Amino acid sequence: MNDFQHSIQIFSIVAIIAPIGIGLIKLKRAGFELRLLLAFLMIGLSTDLTMYYLVHVNRTSHLLGIFNIYSLIESLFFYWFIWRNIRSVVFEWILNVLFFVTPLFWLFFIVLFPGALFTQATASQVFDTVYEITAAFFSGFALLKMVEREDAVLLLPNFWILLGIFFYCFCTFFIMSFLNTVLSQQIWFLNHLVNILVYIIFSIGLWKSGRSTRVSF
Predict the structure, then answer these.
(1) CB burial class (10 A; 0-12, 13-18, 19+) of residue 120?
(2) Four-CA torsion 103, 159, 87, 127, nearest 10 degrees
(3) How far apart are CA 54 and CA 18, in angstroms?
(4) Residues 81 and 162 sit within 8 Å (Cβ to Cβ)
(5) 204 in Cβ contact with 24 (< 8 Å)
(6) Which residues make beta-bridge pairs with 211?
(7) pLDDT 10s per residue in the chain (217 long)?
(8) pTM for this one?
(9) Measured distance CA(145)–CA(139) in Å, rounded
């Protein structure tokens, strides 16, 4: 890793402090959804710092386990947040099912039997790819419906959070598609840039806390 990539990585870790700080300032005015987002961001910061430390002290054997645990938390939060804003009976039902099925899939293929269908690393990659594609699709649909039904959509905190989820899942899936290739070594820093942009989007959403988070019909 060169100095530029290392600097981007550090800035990506530090950048999450912006939405966390704004979330703490707006905590009293924020609804339950945005408070849960704040908790999720704090978990993300703890995970990033832990993984960075383990790499620094050369204890990388624990990295995959921590990464897999965070992937489960991330997928469940994304599904839940989209479910709260999807405005479709059918899609709400699908997301409800996914919310309960995903931990079972994760437990079976990632924890209990990582070699049942895949090698351990590939099982993690498949899990991440599935929930990123799924979350990108449903968050994109939720955004489309929100834009159609709400005139002042840019004033809604949940619009920005959904936009962040869509942007993150879509871009991360694109980057992950190059995993295990030579190109991945050259573009991996883009994942950190995506994180920084997502934190900016989340910061905007949290800053608008206190406004209505439900779209009108």
Answers:
(1) middle
(2) -20
(3) 24
(4) yes
(5) no
(6) 209
(7) 567 767 888 888 899 999 999 999 998 888 899 999 999 999 999 999 999 899 889 888 888 889 999 999 999 999 999 999 998 999 999 999 999 999 999 998 888 777 665 555 577 888 888 999 999 999 999 999 999 998 889 999 999 999 999 999 999 877 766 555 545 555 567 788 899 999 999 999 999 986 544 443 3
(8) 0.89
(9) 10
Which two three-digit tokens encode residue 106?
């994760």
Nearest-CA neighbor of 52 among 22, 8, 4, 21? 8
Are 37 and 202 within 8 A, CB to CB?
Answer: yes
Determine the residue type at 121.
A
Rounded distance between C-alpha atoms, residue 163 and residue 153, angstroms: 11
Q: What's the sign of the alpha-carbon dihedral 170, 18, 68, 78?
A: negative
Structure tokens at 154: 């840019």
